[in-house]
Specification:
The protein is an alpha+beta fold. The chain has one domain. It has helices spanning 9-18, 43-59, 72-78, 121-128, 179-183; strands at 2-7, 20-22, 24-25, 60-66, 85-91, 97-98, 100-102, 112-116, 130-132, 140-146, 157-159, 164-171, 193-200, 207-209, 216-218. The strands form four sheets. Strands 1, 5, 12, 13, 14 and 15 form a six-stranded mixed sheet that branches. The chain has a four-stranded antiparallel sheet with strand order 3-4-10-6. A hairpin with a 6-residue loop joins strand 13 (193-200) and strand 14. The chain is globular and about 60 Å long.
Length: 220
């Protein structure tokens, strides 16, 4: 499945050079309702749920993608105000988890046990992919990743190997990067990678390919 990751120029180039992508920790996501999409009005359940949530947050992180690279809101919010980069990946469909958008928080019934950090596995996966309906413009999908070794900065990364293959690099409409700035780092890739520039559409509220600009295709 082809999915897209919006980021800044600095982080995008770092991802390409190091062939890895940052794993987001549950407690550091920009939406404070992440993994809290459940009715917590019952005090006893709330306390038990918090313990389960903390256990899951220590074991798993997520990588968020969108199905689309041409959403101007995503370029503005995550692509450094259209100055950044969007990375297109081919990821095995079995790893992709669809985000479900809800108008109300879910009601949990008998979802607490000792199976999975105090929460059932199915309920945990549902919560990891549940967001308020106001976020549905992101058209988001996720990969849930076990947290393993952290680097010297204390961050966790997932490598571009096996089930996650870089296929596209799209420069934002306001990016000052040259195609060469990206192409020079692709010689280590064993798969085809396309690099192209985007622009603001002339007739619609979307970002499109700048067909007047050069397209570079790395072929191993």
């Amino acid at each position: 499945m082809r999915v897209y990751y919006y980021t800044s120029e600095q982080h995008g180039l770092s991802n390409i050079i190091n062939k890895r992508i940052k794993i987001s920790l549950l407690n550091e996501l920009n939406d404070p309702f992440e993994f809290l999409g459940v009715d917590l009005s019952d005090k006893e359940f709330r306390e038990a749920f918090k313990a389960g949530r903390d256990a899951v947050a220590k074991e798993f992180g997520i990588i968020s993608f969108s199905r689309s690279w041409n959403n101007p809101l995503l370029w503005a919010h995550y692509g450094d105000k259209h100055k950044g980069i969007c990375l297109g990946f081919e990821i095995h469909g079995s790893l992709i988890k669809e985000v479900t958008y809800y108008p109300e928080r879910m009601t949990a019934v008998a979802e607490m046990n000792q199976e999975f950090g105090g929460l059932t596995k199915e309920f945990t996966e549902n919560l990891l992919c549940a967001k308020y309906i106001g976020w549905n413009y992101e058209n988001e999908v996720r990969v849930i990743v076990p947290l393993e070794t952290k680097d010297s900065t204390g961050l966790c990364f997932s490598d571009f190997e096996g089930n996650m293959e870089l296929k596209e690099v799209i420069l934002g409409p306001r990016s000052d990067l040259k195609i060469y700035n990206v192409a020079q780092h692709l010689h280590v890739y064993k798969n085809e990678v396309k690099v192209m520039r985007s622009r603001i559409a002339f007739t619609k509220y979307e970002v499109v390919q700048n067909k007047a600009a050069r397209v570079y295709v790395h072929r191993p």
